[in-house]
Amino acid sequence: MLKLAKEMFAMEGAQSCDNAHVKRVPSSPEEDGTLKNCLETFGTGQNQMFSLRKAGISKGSSPQLFYRCLILLLLLVNLAPLSNGDVGTAAQYEAPFSPTACYGTNEAQFPSSEEFGSAGEAIWDNGEACGRLYEVQCISGPDPTTCIPGQIVQVRIVDHALTSVSRPSWDDATMVLSTTAFGKISNASATFINIQYIPA
Length: 200
What we know:
The chain contains 6 helices and 6 strands, in the order H-H-H-H-E-E-H-E-E-E-H-E.
């Protein structure tokens, strides 16, 4: 991946810097080592700017290395699944959603984004799942084009899939997402998807 990224940076330089008559300076072994250390130490966390500062990389200290590392981190975040996440399945369900096992008929339980879900048996935890937030990403589905690459949705658990008023599109899913949440990460016509998820 590091080799691929370096090749991409070289291509980017050839297409933009050279065309602008800006001399492209090869990276030094020290810069390559710092870049590699940045990725190995701080991974592809969501706060890339914080990770760069912790690695001692700033625009002032080394503009070229700063932008290289920032672009690489952004690239990996968009292409890689959620790090350290659990793998499961997700189905979808549509209205009516109320009453729920967690909050009854209280309409305040549903986020304005309409990105919420019901917990399957794997995460229900005897009701402890109520109110938990999960970041969910589609990793595969029935068709190679099912997932929307790089998309992550944050959902709030408001119900128990086993007893939800509206039935899931597929049984025994790890979680059942609202149609809005499901459509943010995958083709809305899919019955189920394989997901990676982490507590938010």
